[in-house]
Amino acid sequence: MLEKIESIKSEAQNESGQISSADILEEFRIKYLGRNGILNDLFEEFKTVDKESKGKVGKSLNELKIYIQGIYDERKLTFESGSGSAADNMDITLPGRTFNKGTKHPVSQAIEEITGIFERIGFQVYEGPEIEDEYHNFDALNTPDYHPSRDMQDTFYVDSTGKDRQYLLRTHTSPGQVRIMESTKPPIRVVVPGKCYRNEAVSARSLAVFHQIEGLYVDKKVTFRELKGTLNYFAKEFFGETLKTRWRPSYFPFTEPSAELDVECYLCKAKGCRICKYTGWLEIMGCGMVDPKVFEKVGYDPEIYSGFAFGMGIERPLLQNTEFLISGCFMRMM
Ligand code: PHE
Fold it and tell me: ∠ CA(50), CA(53), CA(59), 5° rounding?
């Protein structure tokens, strides 16, 4: 039996030089180390060896096993670490990796669409800071100290104790109006998209972090009629020709007169639903003629210049967008 062990050892040694792929290595393993392999046969045979020889034969049999296992382990490592040929390691039957194509967030899409509508009629896009100071967010917009919107309940102050009220997260994009007027001379035609923050309970109609687009038009002799014309144009472009708009008088500290623009509910086509509170109308923006007090703050002469401003929420018009609804942004809140 000792001779047999010896010859198997040299056979294995010869074969080890020809293991050039993982497949051949597997054949090698089955042949020598497999359940019905040569080593198992040898161990079976070992049972019949007479007592005197058992010690010697057993020792060389164990050595053979360690030797062959060693060859196998060593070759296996080379294939696993990729040093075998690439073609051998490649399985062309594996399915390809899928890549998920990214898409723009519905809010970004809406901002691009809305700013695009205004850009086509000569407006430029401007962005202001999200951390604002009290002056730009309130004072310059003719919003006095006692105004309820300054309350901690509505405004997130950077100092969470509310004692230091100098810095805050802007509650609307209107401070963008002030910044543009401070740094530019009329005529001005800008839209200012961006994130806004209000300390509000999240519901189907409101979010604590939301987006607005501000608009500002300043020149000599700008009239309310231009405001209406511009925003009716926008509503037709954005919501389509079929939905009607409605104008209601309103109040904002920084516009006079002020108005609210509603559009027929695009979800229920004005029939009445939960989103429009069964009125058939959705409020889409606040607007008005720039208050002369605001012009004074930025150093424009209100006797020479006039203008209009508007501000609209982005998330609400998106309710017509099924993709947005499916994305769960609003569903979760309804
Ligand atoms: N800033 C106002 C708001 O957040 C909207 C507005 C903007 C109104 C510009 C009039 C003019 O509600």
Answer: 125
Tell me the pLDDT band of 82, cut-offs 50, 70 and 90: low
Reported pTM: 0.69
Pocket test for ligand 1, best of 174, 200, 217, 291 (most atoms within 8 A of CB): 174
Going by the DSSP 8-state scheme, the letter that residue 19 receives in this structure is -
Identify the residue whose C-alpha is closest to ligand 1 atom 7: 311
The Cα–Cα gap between 35 and 136 comes to: 82
How many Å apart are CA 117 and CA 111, to the nearest integer? 10
**Which of 83-97, 250-264, 279-293 is predicted least confidently?**
83-97
CA of 267 to the centre of ligand 1 (A): 24
Residue 311 Cβ < 6 Å to ligand 1 = yes
Q: What is the pLDDT of residues 186-222, one digit of tens each?
A: 999 999 999 999 998 887 667 899 999 999 999 999 9
Report the distance separating Cα 59 and Cα 57, nearest Å: 5
Q: Which residues contact 233 (CB under 8 A, 6 or more apart)?
A: 121
Q: Is the CB of 317 under 6 A from ligand 1?
A: no
Asked if residue 132 lies in contact with residue 169, where contact means CB atoms within 8 angstroms, the answer is: yes
Query: What is the structure's pLDDT at 91?
Result: 82
Cα 234 from Cα 217, distance rounded (Å):
14
Distance 25 CA to ligand 1 centre (A): 75
Ligand 1 atom nearest to CA at 196: 4
Cβ–ligand 1 distance for 320 under 6 Å, the answer: no
Give exposure, 101-138, as e/b (b: 16+ Cβ within 10 Å).
eeeeebbebbbeebbebbeeeebeebebeeebbbebbb
